Amino acid sequence: MLQRLTLLILLLSLSVVSFAQQADSVRISGTFNRTPFPDFVKELEARTAYRFYFNPADVDSLSVTLQATGKPLAAVLEQALSGTALKFAIDADKHVFVTAGAPIETKLPDSFFQPENSGAIFAAEPDPEPQGNNRRQNISEQKLYEIGIDRGSDAGSKATLAGYVRDSKSGEPVIGASVFVEKPSIGTATDQFGFFSLTLPVGRYELKIRGIGIKNAKRQISLHSDGKLNIEVEEDIARLREVVIEAEKDRNVAGMQMGVEKLDIKTIRQVPTTFGETDILRVVLTLPGVKSVSEGTTGMNVRGGAADQNLILFNDATVYNPAHLFGFFSAFNPDIIKSVELFKSAIPAKYGGRLSSVLDITTRDGNKKKFAGAGGIGPLTSRLMLEGPILKDKSSFIISGRSSYSDWLLKQIPNKSYQESSAFFYDVNAHITHDFNSKNTLYLTGYSSSDKFRLASDTTYRYQNQNATLKFKHVFGNKLYGVFTGTYSHYAYDVASERNPSTSSRLTYGIDQTGGQLDFSYFPSSKHTIDFGASTLLYNISPGSLTPLGGESLMLPDVLPRERGLENALYISDKIDISNRFSVYAGVRFSLYAALGPRDIYRYLADASKSESTITDTISYASGKVMGTYQGPELRLSAKYAVTENSSVKVSYNQMRQYIHMLSNTASMSPTDIWKLSDPNVRPQLGDQYSIGYYRNYKRNTVETSVEVYYKNMRDFVDYKSGATLLLNHHIETDVVNAKGVAYGMEMMLKKLSGKLNGWVSYTYSRSLVQVNNATTGDLVNGGKFYPSNFDKPHDFMLVSNYRFSRRFSASFNMNYSTGRPITLPLAKYQVGNTVRVYYSARNAYRVPDYFRTDFSLNIEGNHKVKKAAHGSWTLGVYNLTGRRNPFSVYFKSENGQIKGYKLAIFGTPIPTITYNFKF
Amino acid sequence: MAAFRYLLASGLCALLLGLSGCIEPFEPEVKVQDTKALVVDGFINSNGRTTIRLSHTYDLESTAGPLTEDKAEVFIQGQGVGEEYRLREVKSGTYVSDSLVLDPTKKYRLFFRTRDVRLQLKGQYASSYETVKTSPPIDALTWKVVPRGLELYANTHDETGQSIYYRWDYTETWEFTSLAESIIQYVDHQMVKRTEDIYHCWQTVNSPSIRLTSTKRLAQDQVKEFPLIEFVEGDTRLRYKYSVLVRQYTMSAEEYQYWETLKKNTETIGSLFDPLPSQSLGNIRNLNKPTEPVLGYVGVGSMTQKRIFISYDELPRWQFTTGYESCGIPDTLLPLKGVPYQDVVDDRFASQSSQPIRKDYDSGYYLYSSKECVDCRERGTTVRPSFWQ
Q1: Nearest to B229 by CA among B249, B214, B246
Q2: Per the CB < 8 Å rule, is B26 touching A418?
Q3: Under CATH, what is the fold of the domain B35-132+252-266+276-298?
């Protein structure tokens, strides 16, 4: 519609004159009271010679209330449209164009009728050293931007256009937006800084910008030589106004990536959750290929990998425990999150260190133009976020905090031990962005979260995450930029037990990770995008200490020696567009790990299972001495072939190495899990994955479908000997075994992210199998055969949907079915040597009952006046609509000589929730 | 930790549903035949009588003992030449050999055929051939008073360096007394003098846990002060006199691993948040159906044993627990108004679940407590063990 309109203007308005004088000559009088906009227009058309053009969808909720006596048309329209995003333009032929967002330029670009590359006629605008003040950020879509100096060069020569795509309202960078021209079909995507670089033959183009969360935009450019163009786009406030997505060149088919799921915060907010809290990890768990061991845990299992095989990055700093309240909440405040990206296969060479996936969480930059805030009040937590400029258009801050008041909940439970218990958590984020100039930008992020529980007044659990990131970006030129990132991550827990004064003790664990990395992106030509860089990570772990607590305690202190390790990596990758249809990504990462002293390392007999009785020697290493090294290349390859305009086939091959392992004595992630570094006795985990996918879009790219098949090999990941002791174990290697894993599966997904009805449906068939069969040491589980891993849930169906009844009401509905997780059951009892023992099934030979849950929620927005103190919204939801008692835990107890099984369901009833969110 | 997570979960649930709604019995569907396995308990004694018990696994919810496998033909077989010794069934499921001395240079196995009620052959089973592991004698059982209480140690060595893998089990016996000495007895509506002492008893318990160690990493095949049994300060077992008979076995590396796994498995029963247990079978196979699970590891070797006594007068002046703390102090049987005292007495003692102790010296009413608290035979035996010193 708008495009046709534009065309209409171009055809009609060949002789354009300034409209102001014309419009002034007609005076309008009248009273309109809540008149729908179309009626208002009819009235005006009846009284004047003006004709109006507008998109009915733009104005469908707009009504006009005004009184005018002899006012010019422009003034009347200004009044009528004030407080909306609508703009108007009047041309010489008495045509009035009402558009959403940018007003239509009724004046054609001066160069409109100039033949391309006609050389001398152009008033060349040189752009030798673009400063902040001459950045082109005009949001006119019709204006022609001259890029570079026109030296009358050949039509065949090429030039590079680079710049940033930013949000016009807040100045925030737009990540992952496609920037492309259609003829010839050349495009790129903005990176995490909103930066793009596009090499094109010199000439005249219509540059299009498409992306999630922004309105489609375009720019008319005339490219003469290398130059810059910063583009400001408008946020697509999906809840306020619907966008008509036309011919979106989206990444499902056209993008190089496969096995990547990207969620923006708006999608995340629509998904109903347990306590009405927007929960990132909970939504990530709805994606195909992502599973968790049980409800109420945030440990993710991606494509058959263990929970510790996911690299969770919060603005590039590793997060070791992404959960609050023992896994019932994720540790990220939704108000500060911009987007969440999950790489399941085709992991870029830049990332490494974990076997299964990378979950990249990026926070928003603060609003560079004005102060704003948001918050929410839920049944368990409240949160508040503030943002604004420090130096207008140069630097901004965003700060957010969240705190629980879950204590009262425990107090409600009619049981003394709960009433004496307490549970409390908070998290705080701060993020600062500063643009020194167009070439240098600094980003600073701090994050802290803390949890504290007190159980029946004698045992206190505490754990903390602290992260900091410093990022400095320097643009060397249109074709090259570099980013230096320094990160620090700290995770620690302590458990204080005060039940008995003589046994009072404190158990502590801590990990510190300091890292530095340099990443460069180089765009030598339109066919190549080269990323390269280096990184180094220093781990410093205090693996556990038990100290007496209080004067009466008789506990003997037990402190495990520190573990240290250094992980270095170099990488380079090239994305090559061989033809319009065929592109290849080839990358390699070389990682080198060194376990560092000071520490004592036990040596074990080579041909026996490691145990205390097979220790042969102890070797002491001095501080900083290398105790052992592991190294190897990791290949990252992928290719895309576009079969048709709407469909493509992608393949990828991935190698990963992991030098840090989580040891957990529970099947899910928990705060007392231990991270252990590789050392001469614990080898790094290795994995490789092959995947192939077919992608097809329908209905003008509004419906995306994909089928991906993968096969994965994992070696040397950690499994446990039966009944392993993990806490305060001085020789942990005696309780773990190296396991081999195989995972394969097929993920099918149908996704519609626009329109009144949006959401996705996915079905996954996957298996995850483990084998412990070490013939030389005799470590066997299940006779050395493959057995299902803890998170092997073959069938998984997920429906996430949202229906928008109007701009103010939307309803969300979720449905999830999955096979129950495997479990090892006690089958019978038997008597040996006068004692009764339990006869277990083979490991993971049985399954708990299947999982099924449906949720429903209703989102009610306040009114949509643009200018008012605060926008409020309510979310009413029901979690587990059918009240099915899905097992949270299955356990067996010995009661009077009988062994009985029990099933505990936490959310075994429909749970209503209500949350109030606000934004100002 | 797991406990807290569980508590938190059930707390949340309790809030939503009320506690009764959160926890339901869970009866997984398991095929009955999957729960059935034959159990072989015992070892081939290379220097003495071999006792083998054949039984079956039994239901988790059963409170009765296991079903035994009787009418089986059980043999000890030497590898190679037809050396074979038959075991006789002395009671249902228990098979005993004559006192044998086996050739320590040869390998032996257990072989048996099971038969059904009509004596039709059910299955033929055999353990793997094992070398004879002769246990060295226990050098000494020693003990020490430590801050927590008392520790009892095993000490042994093998000059030939062949033993390496050691396992012990033990039988503890201790003298104890019940809550109070009962001198009267209620017989046929009469209070008479008690003739039998139900105050002094001996309790005997078999070792609940598996005790293992290995000297593989030591320069010498010597076990020094391996902690076998721990006592907290004032442990009931040490109140009067305590005795333990420790049996020592040596074994192959494979058998050691079997016991090690079994030991770890017995720690927990298994839930979603506990360490994963796993099946520990052994070295016995059904010759016709190798996939059939058979539980137990039959090793070959000699067992050595040693007994030690610990008397309270060897110990510091500890405040000992009696084991009857939960009983409180004896109750006084008070008369009821308008009811003859004899009726009150009849009413109280007719069922035998309460036992009279004596008359209260002041009031003349009977002191009594539950049978559990008064009659030590509920926990042990009044028969003085033959070895008791």
Answers
A1: B246
A2: no
A3: Immunoglobulin-like (2.60.40)
